[in-house]
Every structure is written in structure tokens, then in C-alpha cells.
Specification:
heterodimer; A: alpha/beta; Aspartate Aminotransferase, domain 2; B: 392 residues; alpha/beta; seven-stranded mixed beta sheet; 12 helices; 12 strands; 13% strand; globular
Chain lengths: 384, 392
């Protein structure tokens, strides 16, 4: 299996699973316990917090552990809304469901939400964000890069806008961290979502960066864990894994960027020479080094993904949407027609992919496409 | 000699079988269960197998189990879902001895305008269901009462509670984090509407829990986003930990009756010997309705924290109060609700056992505890030490 679905989730790095294993085996205490096993577990957590803060360029007391990206996004949006009790929120039309659906929920509670559109290359329109700012805007939430197209958003400009108007700014950086150079140092970002399993850490753990002084209310209630912001016995092994993933990312990021850029471009160039009418979705350069979203006119990508599923792991839309077979709303928002969106496929490479694998994947995809072009009446796609 | 771990109500050691089962999902089997491709898709099936195992532990149906990130999330989700599904009702009933995940969520609801009743317990830590009967009214949306208490191990009369609530249109949630895997629970027999359980109390890892929601109960998700867990809990599934929880549930179900016998014998020996050998000692909690693994003992005239420090020197891990509130010098809210005298509250220690404890470990505790208590009482300004059994 050639795994080209690294934006859905990544392999757990062996160094990460080693760190988790020893933690699961030995350091099983409850970090809130005062005895030796409790203290050891507490040490694991605080050590990880330090590593993560160091990697992200923030203070350790600005890192809060959560159960994952969805919870971090929920906490950011609902936590700010709970603090202000009413007001207006600006987000973009291409956010992850954990942001979009939370905004819809907040609308049902009486908040106003503006979904800023994107241009044809998948970039949030800065002017639209600027124009939609109101006196009662309490939050702007924009993703750092898009999960489907990999397009990097004008986060710096938007955060400057937010700062100028005294509005809290949240960034969902799930897809960017560990894939590209990144630092919070000197940045006006107030809240940032960190997702472990998108950069070689385990699933079930995430973090939220909360800049000191940000007025955020908790969404879960219980004992006083995570400085009162997130109750629940800490996922110690997950936290150890996330810490290790950050340590490795800091060490290897340069190599990762060049390696994935090389493989991604090789993949695109080879596919394009075999299947000439392939089109790239999204901005060519303002893009994550690992992500390729292409459309193959005349083809239904869900059939393609189904046909190659035993050889190559790829995705139509993001993994979280795959349960339903409707055109990607991200691509539709970029102006693609239903047919164009339904003929698009996402290939996301990772640090462990090799040139050999890319060559093989190109061959598999090319053959499948040729085969499908010969038999236009392909079998009905299976939607799990 | 490795540490003697007697703090299993705080958290448990991960069973070797569980660790073995989950590790492949932290290495080669890393896909996303929502993915269409074979690699991710196969994980979906493994999650469903785990769901069936968790369901089986409490005799539920697999589709009645929702995976969450922890007990706290399950508790919050359950109570919120209950009040949201009965929007005209503004009254919530719980007890004074619940876990902070329930107590503080109820306080959150109180700030939002809900009326919250906290039922008292008697000096045995036991609930009087007549009081519940008096407190319910037309406005009551949900009753949330724990199955067994984390500090004392006292088991509440869930069957009687259900009798009272029956056919009144009041939802019942029970935080069974401490009870699941320690005593038999059968949701077909005890038709609770919602039930919380947590992985790390039954030898699975931290960071995974579940919420049982009885078929036909209206449910509103708490964490919002993707379609995972049939739209009932968003977020990429914590595959390895879910599989671990499945395996841990299977182990718990398989060994339950033997473990109950084994643990209650060990616990009783520890308790009886300490009662005999240390003067001015009392057991907190109803000894006739208690988890088999838990004992909460008050040693008058000494500080629980001081006992723990001395136990630490012997590498014995126990707890004063619950882990979630340890570190604070506030006396236990559970013991205070039971009316335990002030001097005894401060000197209370909880020993909570698991299948991994041995007779030799209990012998060791029986050997050192009287010495520690005598020593501390000699230093105490209240110190009044009488006879102590000589260590055997």
C-alpha cells in the first residue's frame, strides 16, 4: 500500500510510538496524584508542554491539551462566544467541519456569522474579511492552510486586521504544523489549534495555544486540570507522543519540506505527462509542500479512489467528508462546477514516502484512469 | 522492589494484553477510519469490534455506545444532551458526592438559570431514595447519580432510583466510571438512559471513555464537527485507545466474578487488620454496599497528606480523597457530606486495589501502616497513641 493520504492522518513515527509505549507501560499514574507514580506522570506532561511550546515559539503556560483538533476548534469558537455571550464571528467558507458546523451551531444560539469567500485559487479574500468586520465582531477564525487543497491562507494579514480592531483571532493550524516552517513568535495570533495525528503523532490528542490574556471560557466542566480550561484526567501517553512529534518536527522540518516538495512535484509532473488534461486545484505556490489536489476531466474521482484503493491510499475531498458522496464544498467555493469537483482527487505525501513509491503510484493511477476512460460506465461507487 | 500501587480508583496500570492489542495501531495501522481506501477502511471494522466488546461488558447493544475522550466529556455530554432534549424543564437533580465532572457541570447549568438539587447522603455515604422522591417535580429534566463513589466505594441504589423515576419522563444518567468492570452492570436489567464509563479505570489508557445512550433516548452531540460516531461525537477516532478499551472491557467481563472474590478478600484483610491494629480508626462508607476494591479509612489525629508522604518512602501509592482534588488542602467534599468529624476527615486514606495487587503487597502495607500511624501521632499535638499490634 502506497500511502498518499497524509492530510487525513499520518503514520505514527517510531520514535513517537516508543515514547508512548514506555509511558503506557511504566508511567501510568494519575498526574493529579501526589505519590511517586503521579509525580512521574505529571513530569511527562510538563516536559511535553515545554517541548511543544519551544517548537511553536510560545510560552509553556500558553499550551492546553485537548482530545484533538475538533475539540480545540470547538473550544476556541464556543469558548470565545461563551465569554462574550453575543456578537458577530467571521470565518471562511472553506473551514473544516469542526469550525463550520460549530459556527452553524452558534448561529442557532443567536450569534451572527460571516463566511468569507475564497478566490478561484482557494485563497480567502482579504477584502471581504476586512469589509465584514463590525463593531460587535468578537472573533475571526481562519485556517492556516486548507486540508483539501493545501492552499496557505493570508493568516498574517488577517491577524494584523484582527489586532487593529481588537478582535480575537483563531487559527486552525491542523494541516500546517509539522509540514512547513512555522512559528508563533511575534505573531498576533490569539488561539491556535494543534493536531497531533497530522504530523506523525497519535490520534486522540491535540492542543490549543491560548495567548496569555485571551478571554476564553471552558466548554467542559470538571476538576481543575489544564489550569481550569480543560478538565479530565490527562491523556498522558498521548501528550508524550505529541511532545515527541514536536521534537522530531523541529529537528527535521527542513528536510521534510524539501523531501515532500520534491515528491509532490514529481507526482504532479509525471501524472501530467501521462494524463495531459489534468488540472491543479488551488494556488500553485502558496501551498503546503505535500499536497496535490487535481482534477481529471471526464472522470469520477470516487471511482478512481475505489479502483486503486488496494494499491494507493488517496482521497476525494477530505477524509471527514468521505461518508457522503457530494461534491467538495471547498472546491465548489473556489468556483468549480459539480462535475469538476467530483472529478478531483487529493494526493498528500509524507516524510516516509519514497521516489520509488511515487513512480509506482503514478503508474497505478495512470493505468486506472486509462482503464476507466475505456469503460466509461464504471461500476457504481461504494460510499461507506 | 517496585512500587505497591493501591490507588486504582485514581487510575490503573494498563493490562499487558491491552497494551499488546493497541500497539499495532500506534505503528503500522495508522490510517484514518473515515477514509475510503482499504487501509483506513479496515480500521472502521476494528472500531466496531471494540464497540461490541464495550457494549457486552454492560449488556448493551453496540450502537448504544459512543466513544468519547474521557469520563468528564461523557458526563458533560450526557447531562447537556438530557436538558437540551427536554427544553421546557429547568430542574436537575444530582448528589452532593458526585465527581467534579458532574458537580461542576451542574454549577454551569445553575449559572445558565437551571435549578439544581444536590441530594444529601447519610453518615454511611448512602443515599436515601425517599429524599429523591420528595425533590422530583414536573420541572425535573434529568437525574444524574453516580453508580459508585470514587472516594468511599459506596454503591448507590440505582434500581430503587429507577423505580422512582419510572414513567415520569425524567432522564436518568449515571456516572459509572468507578463501577464498570468492578461489579456486574446490566443495562437491560437496570434500564438507565445514559451511563458514563472511562478507559483508564479499567486497565485501558487515559484519553478514552464511552457514553452509553439507551436506544430511543434523544441525543444531542456535544463536540461538533465531522460525522464520526454516526454524528454523535465529532473528531477523528482515537483508534488505538478505542481498541484498547474494547480489549480491557473483554478482560474485565471475563474475570469479573473471580476478581470480585479476590479483591474483596484482600481488601477485607487490609481493612480488618488496620481496624484491629491502629486505635482511633474508622471506615468511611457503607460496608454492606461497597465496591470490592475500595476502602476509605480515617486515622484520627493525623494528617492524610503526612501518611501519604510516609507511605511514599515505602513506595506505597495510596490517596487521600480523590486524585482530582488532591493537592488542594480542602477536605474531601464526599466525607464532609457524610458528616465525618473534622479530625477524621483530614486523616482519611483511600486504598483502592486491582487484579494486579498481591497478598504480599497487602502484607507489606499491614506491616508498615501501624508504624507510620504511631510515629505520626507521637509528633502530633493531638497525639494520643495507645496499643499497636506488633508487626508480625
Amino acid at each position: 500500500m502506497i500511502y498518499l493520504d497524509n492530510n487525513a492522518t499520518t503514520p505514527v513515527d517510531p520514535e513517537v510510538s516508543d515514547a508512548m509505549f514506555s509511558c503506557l507501560k511504566r508511567d501510568f499514574g494519575n498526574p493529579s496524584s501526589s505519590h511517586l507514580l503521579g509525580k512521574k506522570a505529571k513530569e511527562v506532561i510538563e516536559n511535553s508542554r515545554e517541548i511543544i511550546a519551544n517548537f511553536l515559539g510560545c510560552r509553556r503556560d500558553e499550551i492546553y491539551f485537548t482530545s484533538g483538533g475538533t475539540e480545540s476548534n470547538n473550544l476556541s469558537l464556543i469558548g470565545i462566544a461563551l465569554y462574550h455571550k453575543k456578537g458577530h464571528i467571521i470565518t471562511s467558507a472553506i473551514e473544516h467541519p469542526s469550525v463550520i458546523n460549530t459556527c452553524l451551531h452558534l448561529e442557532s444560539l443567536g450569534f451572527d456569522v460571516t463566511y468569507a469567500p475564497v478566490d478561484g485559487e482557494g485563497i480567502v479574500k482579504l477584502d471581504e474579511v476586512r469589509q465584514s468586520i463590525r463593531k460587535n465582531t468578537i472573533l475571526i477564525s481562519v485556517m492556516h492552510s486548507n486540508n483539501e487543497t493545501g492552499v496557505i491562507q493570508p493568516v498574517e494579514e488577517i491577524s494584523a486586521l484582527a489586532k487593529e480592531h481588537g478582535i480575537t483571532f483563531h487559527v486552525d493550524a491542523a494541516q500546517s504544523i509539522g509540514k512547513m516552517h512555522f512559528s508563533l513568535a511575534g505573531s498576533p495570533v490569539d488561539l491556535m489549534t494543534v493536531v497531533s495525528h497530522k504530523f506523525y503523532g497519535p490520534k486522540g490528542i491535540g492542543a490549543l495555544y491560548v495567548k496569555n490574556g485571551t478571554n476564553l471560557k471552558p466548554i467542559l466542566f470538571g476538576a481543575g486540570h489544564e489550569m481550569g480550561l480543560r478538565p479530565g484526567t490527562e491523556n498522558v501517553s498521548g501528550i508524550a507522543g505529541l511532545g515527541k512529534a514536536c521534537e522530531i518536527a523541529k529537528r527535521d522540518i527542513k528536510l521534510r519540506v524539501s523531501h515532500t516538495t520534491h515528491l509532490r512535484d514529481m507526482l504532479f509532473n509525471s501524472l501530467r505527462s501521462n494524463i495531459p488534461d489534468i488540472k491543479l486545484n488551488g494556488h500553485e505556490t502558496k501551498r503546503l509542500p505535500n499536497t496535490l489536489n487535481i482534477r481529471i476531466p471526464g472522470l469520477t474521482s470516487i471511482d478512481l479512489v475505489e479502483n486503486i484503493k488496494d494499491q494507493v491510499a488517496a482521497s476525494t475531498g477530505s477524509a471527514c467528508h468521505s461518508g457522503k458522496q457530494s461534491p467538495s464544498s471547498v472546491l465548489k467555493n473556489m468556483g468549480l462546477s459539480d462535475a469538476e469537483a467530483l472529478s478531483s482527487i487529493r494526493l498528500s505525501v509524507g516524510k516516509d514516502n519514497t521516489e520509488e513509491e511515487i513512480k509506482k503510484a503514478v503508474e497505478t493511477i495512470t493505468n486506472a484512469v486509462n482503464e476507466m476512460n475505456k469503460k466509461p460506465a464504471a461500476k457504481k461507487p461504494v460510499c461507506q | 522492589m517496585s512500587a505497591i500501587y493501591l490507588d486504582n480508583n485514581a487510575t490503573t496500570r494498563i493490562a499487558p494484553e491491552v497494551l499488546e492489542e493497541m500497539m499495532p495501531y500506534l505503528s503500522d495501522m495508522y490510517g484514518n477510519p473515515s477514509s475510503m481506501h482499504t487501509f483506513g477502511g479496515q480500521l472502521h471494522r476494528r472500531i466496531e469490534e471494540a464497540r461490541a466488546k464495550v457494549a457486552s461488558l454492560i449488556n448493551a447493544e453496540p450502537e448504544e455506545i459512543i466513544f468519547t475522550s474521557c469520563g468528564t466529556e461523557s458526563d458533560n455530554t450526557a447531562i447537556m444532551s438530557a436538558v437540551e432534549s427536554l427544553p421546557r424543564k429547568k430542574h436537575v437533580i444530582t448528589t452532593r458526592v458526585e465527581h467534579p465532572a458532574v458537580l461542576n457541570f451542574c454549577q454551569h447549568l445553575a449559572r445558565k438559570g437551571y435549578r439544581v438539587t444536590y441530594l444529601p447522603v447519610n453518615n454511611q455515604g448512602q443515599l436515601d431514595t425517599n429524599v429523591l422522591l420528595k425533590e422530583i417535580d414536573e420541572d425535573t429534566a434529568v437525574v444524574s447519580i453516580m453508580f459508585a463513589n470514587n472516594e468511599t466505594g459506596v454503591i448507590f441504589p440505582v434500581k430503587e432510583i429507577l423505580e422512582i423515576l419510572k414513567e415520569r419522563g425524567i432522564l436518568f444518567h449515571t456516572d459509572a466510571v468507578q463501577a464498570v468492570g468492578k461489579i456486574p452492570i446490566d443495562v437491560k436489567n437496570l434500564p438507565v438512559d445514559m451511563l458514563t464509563l472511562s478507559g483508564h479505570k479499567i486497565h485501558a489508557p487515559k484519553g478514552v471513555g464511552a457514553l452509553y445512550v439507551r436506544k430511543g433516548t434523544r441525543f444531542n452531540p456535544y463536540i461538533i464537527g465531522g460525522h464520526q460516531e454516526k454524528g454523535r461525537r465529532a473528531g477523528t477516532e482515537n483508534v488505538a485507545s478505542i481498541i484498547a478499551l474494547g480489549r480491557a472491557s473483554e478482560l474485565a467481563a471475563r474475570n469479573l466474578s473471580e476478581e470480585i472474590k479476590y479483591l474483596s478478600a484482600l481488601r477485607d484483610r487490609l481493612e480488618d487488620t488496620l481496624l484491629k491494629c491502629c486505635p482511633d480508626v474508622r471506615v468511611n462508607g457503607d460496608r454492606n454496599s461497597r465496591l470490592p476494591n475500595t476502602t476509605n479509612i480515617s486515622f484520627e489525629y493525623v494528617e492524610g497528606e503526612a501518611i501519604l508522604l510516609r507511605l511514599n518512602e515505602y513506595e506505597i501509592c495510596a490517596s487521600s480523597g480523590s486524585a482530582c482534588t488532591s493537592g488542594s488542602l480542602e477536605p474531601s467534599h464526599v466525607l464532609r457530606a457524610m458528616g465525618v468529624p473534622y479530625t477524621a476527615v483530614h486523616g482519611s486514606i483511600r486504598f483502592s486495589l486491582s487484579r494486579y495487587n498481591t497478598e504480599a503487597e497487602i502484607d507489606r502495607v499491614i506491616e508498615v501502616m501501624p508504624l507510620i500511624i504511631r510515629e505520626l501521632r507521637l509528633l502530633s499535638p493531638y497525639g494520643r497513641e495507645k496499643i499497636v499490634c506488633p508487626p508480625e
